[in-house]
Design a protein that fits this description.
about 0% strand; 2 helices; mainly alpha
């Protein structure tokens, strides 16, 4: 598993895909928190 991860991160395509996956996960967490806060405020 270590060798597979090292081989994936040795190329720019692997680094880009890891960055995109991390960005999507962080964006999902951000929107989840944001929508939960907005849903608690009630109608305006």
């Amino acid at each position: 598993m270590k060798e597979l991860f090292a081989q994936l991160m040795s190329d720019w395509v692997g680094q880009l895909s890891a960055f995109v996956i991390a960005f999507v996960i962080l964006m999902a967490i951000f929107f989840l928190v944001w929508f939960m806060k907005k849903s608690g405020e009630g109608p305006q």
